[in-house]
Structure formats: structure tokens, C-alpha cells
Amino acid sequence: MRMLTATAAAGLVLLAGCGGGAPSDTNAGGAPTPEKRTLTVLAAASLTETFGELEKQFETDNPGVDVVMSYGGSSDLAQQIVNGAPADVFASASDATMKTVTDAGLTNGAPTIFAKNVLEIATVPGNPKGITSFADLANPDLKVVVCAPQVPCGAAAQKVETSTGVDIKPVSEETDVKNVLGKVTTGNADAGLVYVTDVTAGGSQVQGVNFPEAEQATTNYPIATLKNAPQQQLAESFVSLVTGEQGQKALQAAGFGTP
Hints:
Elements: H1 2-18, E1 37-44, H2 48-61, E2 65-72, H3 74-82, E3 89-91, H4 95-103, E4 112-117, E5 119-123, E6 144-147, H5 152-164, E7 172-174, H6 177-185, E8 191-195, H7 196-202, E9 207-209, E10 219-225, H8 232-243, H9 245-253
Parallel strand pairs: 1-2, 1-3, 6-7, 6-8
Antiparallel strand pairs: 3-10, 4-10, 5-8, 5-9
């Protein structure tokens, strides 16, 4: 009987020794430590505020995941992907720039349209130049800033110019809408052609002037996971967030139209 007791005691000591240290993959509370992963998203500059909000939500829903957002002109981002830049998701501000990527065979399936946008004139608060129409932007006394033609907002502006016969002589052509908006908010331009959502995001720093001709150049926003995405599963989950109910509500709140 004593031998059995001693053996049992030795077994308890052995078990205690085996469980003496916390496993390296658990935290102080005993729960498994989330695996650290990085999700890289390339997105049109006009999505900055909305995707910034969705980024936080995605990281909350996926512990251990760090979403790295890279914003810029859609044409520049598309070219980066074609040139081999590592990324998981691409959200473009036009079908044409997304086509650059799909034509190169670099998307994982067909892109999904998740939002729409239209142009709006941004002026300094109070609209001191009295701009009321798209045609007013042709006034040579005005300092007008637009996006470069290869950028979606620039292509949309050119489309409206062609359809209306209005010839704008901009003082500069910027690489994305945020740069255009910055020229206006810093007083370096009297007006800029941006998206409705950018005017909304600008708050009290800018004043918006709607013009009906903008409807002739509505912009689609497609999103896709990339073929060689390092985090394919996470990429699909992020796209689902953007295209799902929560993402669509955030986009609508920012002024985007939805498909």
C-alpha cells in the first residue's frame, strides 16, 4: 500500500513538473495568443476616411491582425500591383484602373462593385468667388485645380468637359482628390473638382457646389482580392466586410452611392 502511495505521489510530482510553465502561445489569462498577421490593402484616396473606419473594425474582429492601408491615385496603385508590389486587396475608384490589374491576370476572381461616387466642386468656406455651376470653372480669373487625366477623378472631369463643351484651364493637375482638396483648403486654389465624399470629409474647411452634369460621369468603385495575396483568407474577409451590411452603411454615411 505504501508503494502504491509513493508511486502516485511521484506521478503527481511529474505532472506538476510538466505543467510548471505557461505555454509560449498563451497569454497571462491562459487564452491562446492571437497569431500576428498583416493584411495589406491598396485603396483609392477618396476611400481614406471610410476605409480607416473599417480598418479599425476589422482589426477588432480579427485579433492579432494589423491592417496596413496604402492610399493613392487608383492609376498609380494599379501600376504598383502590375509591377509586383505585394498586397492582398485592391479597391479602385474606377473600372478602368481595376481593368489594368484584371488584364494582367492579377485578381483572384472578378472584382465586385461596392460603391459609386460623383464629382462636386469644392470651394473655400463662403464661396467668395460666387461659383454656382460647372461652366463657372472656365472663368480665367479663377484658380481651379483638378485631378490628372489618368486618375479616375480627372477622367470623370474630362468626361463632363467633353459632354458640356466647357474648357477648364486648371492651374495644376494633382495625383489624387486629396491633393486637390488640399490646394483648396490651404487657399492655393479658388475651386477644385473632387468627389461628393471628399467635400463631406472636408467638413467646415470647404464648401460644396453641386452641378447636375456630374451625373454624366458617375464613378464605380470595384474591389478585388489579389491573386498572389499573402493573406488570401483575410483578404476575402475584408472584402466581405466592405461589401456587407456594415461596410455599406459606413459608405452611405460618408456620402457614397451603393450598387
